[in-house]
C-alpha cells in the first residue's frame, strides 16, 4: 500500500514538473523570467528615487525647522522641561511639522487646563507619564502652568504683530 501511494505521489510531482517546464518556467527564461528582470529594473529605479527622496527630505526638514522657529514664542523653563517634549514648544501638539505624543494644548482656557492637570495628578485621568510628571507638583505650580499655557494664543498674536 505504501509503495502505491509513493508511486502516485511521484507521478504527480513529475507531471507537475513537466507541465511547468512546457510552459517556459520562471527560471528557464520564459514569460516569468521577464517579470524577474522587471523586478531588477524596479529595484534600481526605487534606489534612485530613495536618493532623490533623501535630498528632498533634507531640504524639507530644514524648511520645517525654520518655519517652526519663526513661530515660536518664549516659554518658561518649567514648561520646556516638563511639557514641550510631548506637547510641542508652543503647545500645538506638533514640533517641526511632526505630530507629538501629547495632544494640543494651544487655545484651551486656564480653567480647562488646570482641571485636566489636577485630574491627571489625582489619577482621575489615566496617563502614567502625566501622573509621574505632576505627582510631586503643588497646586500653585499647576496654576502657573495653566496660566502660561492659556496665554499661548496671545503670545503668538503678539509675535505676529
What attributes does this structure have?
Cytochrome Bc1 Complex, Chain D, domain 2; 161 residues; mainly alpha
Shape: elongated
Number of separate structural domains: 1
- How far apart are the first and last residues' alpha carbons, in Å? 93 Å
Rounded average pLDDT:
76
* CATH homologous superfamily classification: Cytochrome c-like domain
* Helix/sheet category: mainly alpha
Describe the 3D structure:
Helix content is 70%, strand content 2%. With 161 residues, the protein is mostly helical. It has a single domain (46-160), classed as Orthogonal Bundle (Cytochrome Bc1 Complex, Chain D, domain 2). The chain has a two-stranded antiparallel sheet. Mean pLDDT is 76; it is low at 66-70.
Question: What's the SSE blueprint?
Answer:
Elements: H1 2-22, H2 31-70, H3 77-82, H4 84-87, E1 94-95, E2 98-99, H5 110-122, H6 128-134, H7 139-150, H8 152-160
Antiparallel strand pairs: 1-2
Helix pairs in contact: 5-6, 5-7
Concise account of the structure shown:
The protein is an all-alpha fold and 161 residues long.
Amino acid at each position: 500500500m505504501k509503495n502505491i501511494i509513493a508511486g502516485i505521489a511521484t507521478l504527480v510531482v513529475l507531471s507537475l514538473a513537466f507541465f511547468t517546464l512546457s510552459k517556459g518556467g520562471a527560471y528557464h527564461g520564459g514569460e516569468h523570467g521577464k517579470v524577474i528582470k522587471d523586478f531588477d529594473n524596479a529595484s534600481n529605479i526605487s534606489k534612485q528615487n530613495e536618493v532623490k527622496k533623501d535630498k528632498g527630505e533634507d531640504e524639507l526638514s530644514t524648511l520645517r525647522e525654520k518655519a517652526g522657529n519663526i513661530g515660536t514664542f518664549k516659554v518658561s523653563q518649567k514648561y520646556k522641561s516638563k511639557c514641550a517634549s510631548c506637547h510641542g514648544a508652543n503647545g500645538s501638539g506638533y514640533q517641526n511639522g511632526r505630530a507629538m505624543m501629547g495632544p494640543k494644548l494651544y487655545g484651551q482656557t486656564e480653567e480647562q487646563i488646570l482641571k485636566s492637570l489636577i485630574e491627571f495628578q489625582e489619577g482621575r485621568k489615566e496617563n502614567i507619564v502625566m501622573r509621574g510628571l505632576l505627582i510631586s507638583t503643588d497646586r500653585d505650580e499647576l496654576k502657573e502652568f495653566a496660566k502660561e499655557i492659556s496665554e499661548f494664543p496671545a503670545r503668538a498674536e503678539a509675535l505676529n504683530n
